Amino acid sequence: MSAALLKSEAPVRDDxxxxxxxxxxxxxVRQNPPLTKKRPRRRGPLERLERTWGLIxxxxxxxxxxxxxxxxxVFTWVLSLCEWNGVTAPEFKGLGNWTRLLTDGLFWKxxxxxxxxxxxxxxxxxxxxxxxxxxxxxxxxxxxxxRTLYFLPVVTSFVAVSLVWTWFYDPNIGxxxxxxxxxxxxxxxxxxxxxxxxxxxxxxxLAIIIMSVWKGLGxxxxxxxxxxxEVPVSLNEAATLDGAGRFQRFLHVTLPTISPITFFVIVITxxxxxxxxxxxxxxxxxxxxxxxxxxxxYYLYRNGFEYLQMGYATTIGTALFVIIFAVTLIxxxxxxxxxxxx
Amino acid sequence: MTKSPQAPRWVDNWPRGSKIATAAGWYFxxxxxxxxxxxxxxxxxSTSLKTFSSAFAYPPTLIPEAWNWSNYTDLFTKDYLPxxxxxxxxFKITGLAVLGMLLSCSMSAFAMAxxxxxxxxxxxxxxxxxxxxxxxxTIIPVFILFQWLGWKDTHYPLWLPTxxxxxxxxxxxxxFYISIPKDLYEAALVDGCNPFTILWxxxxxxxxxxxxxLGVFTFMASWNDLLNPLIYIDTLExxxxxxxxxxxxxxxxxxxxxxxxxxxxxxxxxxxxxxxAQKAFVSGIxxxxxxx
Amino acid sequence: xxxxxxxxxxxKNGAPGLGVCFATALAGLALLSACGGGSGAPEKTLVRxxxxxxxxxxxxxxxxxxxxxxxxxxxxxxxEYASWAEYNRKIQAQMAARSAPDVFLLGGTQxxxxxxxxxxxxxxERFANDPSIDLGAYYQAPIEVFTxxxxxxxxxxxxxxxxxxxxxxxxxxxxxxxxxxxxxxxxLLEAAKALTRDHDGDGRTDQFGFxxxxxxxxxxxxxxxxxxxxxxxxxxxxECLLDTAAAREALEFYTxxxxxxxxxxxxxxxxxxxxxxxxxxxxxxxxxxxxxVNNYDEIDAFExxxxxxxxxxxxxxxxxxxxxxxSSTSPDKEAAWRFIRFMGSEAYQKKLAELRASIPALKSVxxxxxxxxxxxxxxxxxxxQFEYAQPLPFTPGFPRWEAAxxxxxxxxxxxxKEATEACRDAAAEVxxxxxxxxxP
Lengths: 342, 292, 440
What we know:
- The complex is a heterotrimer.
- Chain A is mainly alpha-helical.
- Chain A has helices spanning 3-6, 17-31, 44-79, 96-103, 105-136, 143-155, 158-169, 175-187, 204-229, 233-241, 246-257, 259-274, 278-283, 296-306, 310-338; strands at residues 82-83, 91-92.
- In chain A, 54% of the residues are buried.
- The longest helix of chain B has 32 residues, at 83-114.
- At the B-C interface, helix 3, helix 5, helix 8, helix 9 and helix 11 of B face helix 1, strand 1, helix 2, strand 2 and helix 3 of C.
């Protein structure tokens, strides 16, 4: 069957589709972090061809990185060592901002809140959206309608969505508590004390997490859907012939094949989870209640734009960068493990 | 190889009798999830049709007692907002942004995925690093940069940078290209095609779902962008739609039904695009037939 | 073998693909250059005017701007729009890029910080040397707020205060007499208790008597401290006096409206919904600004009116105003000044009166029979407060220390701190911030 597909560097075996699928995965891993690994050197002209075209094709992007991104980003790193109000000339302060950061209770509070957000919303968001993608990848009549409906929350702007959810969560007139109490009445139980959602430090962040997961599901679903579309039919068919069930096929064919995309989704969801801002900004201004929804980026924003302490804000941002960087490094390292070898 | 290509693949392994029951089961699950996903949206629609005072009634009602279209008509007539102008601006900016993003990201992602050129690891690292810096930090330096370029009160800051790619798009497409079997590339190379031709004739068609996804995402990000237009554009007539409509939100209070109406108007184009793009979401290798 | 066919067609058709791609890129570039190109040679001086506001308000001022341009043919005004939410971010980015608008609208909250950044032009000499301006003709509060160490920085635009809005229908339904200007705190509390209702008996309050909040010192809690004879900051604005008996007592009373008496929704609701709760009849009384009359006029479900704030040991209310200021980086300050001066003029102030969004800063306009004819009871209540109203203690770092007080006192509402404790901690935090923000 798909001999051509599995040729190249990976050794070809004929001992069953699972292994072949794994080979695809192996190859994927090989190519995934090739950053550190040198590929075997090719003949001169071919190498020159790749080099020339590589620079031509990536040229605009490299230019953009240098021009629009590198400057501002490096600028912020330097500023984390300065006192800067965002307007007049920055003043070098050495590690002053950093010592302040380490003793700033609110920074740690914001870090803990952010970690809580990430710890809950990222696994939920990734797993649920993958399940959703598999669900709508079925060839059922009318499935496109469901795909569209599931995408609705993504399309809607954060401002509108946040307003609606703030309203849902209202302890007195909110729909959510209304539904809860109606359900209890329907079952014949006395409704519980209304949950205060955004008004209670214990539930506020949870409320924001629920809303964020709901909002983001469709986004990752579309990415996974695109990945599932590229799982070669031949692989699945071969596995079916071998008597593999749906679940086995999913485990041994689908998951390994889409693993580069799963990696992408996890990295991106983690990064954006650490940078959670919009929903907190709109739904719980100023980290209400009692700083329980204060996240790192919101704290950074508040310092930079409301308190005019841009220098300190960049320090917070750089600290956040270091955290994200570390977590992403772990991701890059871990992917060698979670993508199957024999 | 498939026994009956027309029959839905998902029923293959199920006993014949339970097929209908299974289908019903799937539809039930799909519908329950759909309700949860759509409910807030329906709520927006309903609120946009309510009057100001009935919008906060308790117990809440999903169907407004009187359909109040004035929230929509006022947008176009009463509020001094050049909504049509906004819409044209939005289409121009968003169209260019999508074009730029797809063009530039597909080229550089291909180079990053398949071509061995000097500095590639550094650039991939820089791509990830770019994603890790919160945009709030770079607002001021980027503003100064764009001002220096003379882009004040123009649309350039909103779309021109996309022609130089974006970290998200490059990372995204690179991951897709990696999952396309490499021997396709090598075989074509042996046949004497240059890398650009390989990208154009093999990789782009094969990654159509990914391109469509990136296109929709870029469209959405550009269309819903509030911050950049509000910071870079000074003239009301140059505002794109979402940012322009945000002017309805006053300093002290906001007319929620009207804001919901505005939100509905501004998300409609994205919905239409998404529905149109559905066709492109499906395909890729699955239909290209790679079997011998 | 389809792949081979693919390869073959590839060899034949590779070049056109490339062509299409470059053509698209070129089209993009062509569009780029087509979009460029400036307008004709500007012989006029351009004065950029930055402000936030609803488009309807800005549109209403357009004819005034054309009037100004007709009177000053050498000047062209460009209104730069910003939404309230992004106004300060935008101004700050522009200041960093040395391109702040020549003239812009500013409130007291950010003024001291921008002044400390050296971004606000000192207008003292211009005021003194311009015979057409009589500062005595304006309400003094906005002028005071924008005067630091005897130097003047702002041309007053409007002058606003905060009073008690009440829902007449809810009072009538409950059979309670409407509030009067004679009201004191016990009257407020008693009425609020009677107006807090659970209509359907489900244990949830559907209607609150009053809206207490720490969202804004100006709108919500500041005046209670003053009414009890307390101060928020010391005279020289270096110390925080919230930890003194008078202030503490006032804040104990204010927090008890939520904790002990439960006549007000709690902090997050107030923050999320703000004036919506009064607008929709879910609170019967609220303290709110004179700038809200227009918004509240949209209400058709009930009748409402305004009385001066209830008195504690004494009468007290805040007064505040927006000013037009000049950017210190403005390239043509003379032209900018002419425009600023115009916005203090009677013509502009009369237009402001017509818009009804704010009380004009020019007394002769605010107290004119034309202005008072519309909603007289409401306007008289506001104007009556001008007798004793006082400006807020703005300083550099104001937004920061106001927020510190807010988070401390909201802890009382969450049952995490006693009011006395919160006052003590808030005062300490405020002083630390003041020390840092005013340090040279």
